[in-house]
Please model this.
Amino acid sequence: MKRKRTWLLLLLCLTLLVSACAGNTGTTEKTTGATESASGTEEKTDDSWSKIEAKGKLIMGLDDNFPPMGFRDEKNEIVGFDVDLAKEVTKRLGIELDLLPIDWSMKQNELDAGNVDLLWNGYSFTPERDADNTLSTAYLANDQVVIVLSKSGVTDLAGLAGKTLAVQEGSSAQQALDAAADFKASLRSVVPFRDNVTAFLDVESGSSDALLIDKVVGEYYIAQKDEADYTILGESLAPETYVIGFRKGEVAFKDKIEETLRAMKEDGKLAEIATEWFGSDVTIFK
Model:
């Protein structure tokens, strides 16, 4: 009987020992897991500029029907204010510039997929874009305005009640219209177009009564025509600024572009390019 109690005690001790070892192993695994989890939250090194530098070129996504920021001239070459800025920036950085026209309504997809390195073509700041991307300092001021044919007799936004408004699909103009709920509700219809030039032609033909567009673009377009034929309504739907769009977190790349633009501002090149396109230095880059 005594020997039996001894065996029972030994068995109990072994059971406790095994349980203790198992407990220690679990603690070790949990600790290790926590360490791995912590290391997983560490910020990755931002090598966005290094990748561009190693590649030797910058792919710029743009709408090639958005004068004067980016458009095709009579030789079918892509020109514009933003194009000239990008050419000077890449020249100073010692890399090539690859201009890639894209469907502007799909610009976020193109950027996220890595098909373009940045969006630089009258790209307006909006809270939504700021949340989805890394944005540069603003370099140009703009407004969303409505243009009508002077013969229409329309002089203000209220005069467009029951009429048709043209707008570029996927643009900040469309976002401004969505935000102006009462004005949008007063319209008979809103017609989206792939680009502003086609939308302008629709207004000229009388199919649409007005066009909501970036003031910078509208003024440039009208200057190429008979200005007396068009009226820019005095009320702005939304004041805004132009920025450059980078993928979220690509701060090193953004900083390099801004550093170069700042050097261009200091040596007068930024003002020179602006004056060539607008007649004066209208940039606001700081």
